[in-house]
Amino acid sequence: MSLKHENNSGSDAAGYKQGTVDSTAGQQFPAENAEAVATNSLQRNLKGRHMQMIAIGGAIGAGLFIGSGGAFQTGGPASVFLGFLIVGVMVYLMMQALAEMTVLYPINGAFTMYICRFVDPSFGWACGIEYAISWLTVLPFEISAACNMIHFWPGSHGINNAAWIVPLLVALVVIQIFGVRGYGEVEFVLSLMKILACVGFIILGIIIDVGGVPTDDRGYIGGRYWNDPYSAFLNGFHGFCSVFVTAAFAYTGTELTGLAAAETMNPRKEIPRASNQVAWRIGIFYVVNLLLVGLVVPANSPLYGSATSVSKGSPFVIAIELAGIKVLPSIFNAVILIAVMSVANSCTFGSTRTLQALAANGMFPKKMAYIDKKGRPIPVVILQLLFGLLAFINLAHNGGTIFNWLLSLSGLTILFVYGGIALAHIRFRKAWAMHGHTLDELPYKANCGVWGSWICLLVCVLALIAQFYVALYPVGGPNLDPTTFFQLYLAGPLLLFLYVLWKGYSWIYEPSHRPLFIRTKDIDIYTGMREISNVGVSAEDRRASDAELGAEKRKPGAAGFIKNAIRNII
């Protein structure tokens, strides 16, 4: 298994033995040879523009456009604004930690393998399996949601959802035929359309709020819906706690840049760039948009619960409806449909790469590790698409209940994964220092350092505690109800079950995995290490990369900062 150290023949690290410190203290490690890092045949077909769009494309979806509506109803506009802002900061800190590790170790499986290597294989396996399950179960849900979006248009009335499920699944199959390049190109186009829609809504939201829409009888709105007789914080602290999981679910997909590292042409350059751009895009496309929605849509709007409302109560569409604009609801419904299909596209990437990496490391059935000559993990792709067939369950009379339980498996998963990434970064930094290395040796350093990971981990823990409280005492009741609790918190017991399952298995078959956690001196920081992106680089390429890295580390000055900020936004 790649979790165990393998000596890199011909390198300065050849004498390294796991658990020793003095033998390698202060050494510089050359770019590894092709044999040491070519652990899979995934192809590096993702370009910089793909990576930058994946960083936001996998995140902007139904969680933002539709799921935020429930958060407005339970928490109010101020709770949504603060909740998404806090979780957004946590996501940025997580992405910085992930970028630091991914640039140094652009390996298949990324954060799942980091948790296995730097924290504990059992915890990493549990996070990886639950993360894959979350994508497997979200895919049929997204397909069903896409069918609901289609039914908005009059021409689709009376047509059974099965007529839409089949072509949507076929479209996903066609994308998979083209491998990771097909995924990247589709995500690039869909993400660009979503970005334009978000920017357009910001402009429209400002116009609505200042009373610039002639068809809106409300006139100037300002902060009306944040004051009496309305409320900025519905249900007080209770309502505020209910927002965190909704926000975390809405941000899910941002971490896909880490999974894409093994298929990126230049991970050392593109991953930090994509990670740094996350901050600007979180602030603009999430926080600003939701702030404007909270200003122009009252949290108690009857359209949230109306069966005739467009797009199942999307607060964005409700804002357009309340303004009396007749054409835009149909256009924005199409945007929501695009967003849903974008998430479905991300589902096939997130689950397949995670399961293939686990299989390649002996932690999942070996047949699932197979990759064809074009870099496509065929067995796990087939598994993901088979889960897509569960969308037909929604055609049954009790299909909605079944879907609620399927989605309960993924409700908290992303918080466990983000917390695991932060913990892995903390352990990595400690092991890096123990083995005698300095931060200047890292190709990329997280902007907020290890303290950023501690803050990220703390926010994850607090969000899990808040959700536990909401699961026991949900807004509107029933209190202490077992069914409600497990629908809101099933991912927690599932993670514990998976952890105990692998720990029990490893106690018999993998003795090295028996300890509760890996001791710092036993952490392997050398296997798969890369100092620059490409395999088998020459000394000249290495010097050029070091010079480029040095130039990037230099302070750009005020003009350069403004220039970089504008470039990141656009």
TrEMBL record:
Signal peptide start and end residues: none
InterPro entries found in the cross-reference section: AA-permease/SLC12A_dom, Amino_acid_permease_CS, APC_YAT
Recorded topology in the membrane: Multi-pass membrane protein
Principal cellular location given in the protein's record: membrane
Pfam families assigned to the protein according to its UniProt record, in alphabetical order: AA_permease (PF00324)
Listed Gene3D superfamilies: Amino acid/polyamine transporter I (1.20.1740.10)
Domain of life: Eukaryota
UniProtKB keywords: Amino-acid transport, Membrane, Transmembrane, Transmembrane helix, Transport
Gene Ontology molecular function terms on file: amino acid transmembrane transporter activity
Chain ranges passing through the membrane: 53-72, 78-95, 123-141, 161-180, 192-212, 232-251, 278-297, 317-344, 377-396, 402-428, 449-472, 484-502
Record's subcellular location: Membrane
Location of the Amino acid permease/ SLC12A domain: 50-503
One CC-aspect GO term: membrane
Protein's name in the database: GAP1-general amino acid permease
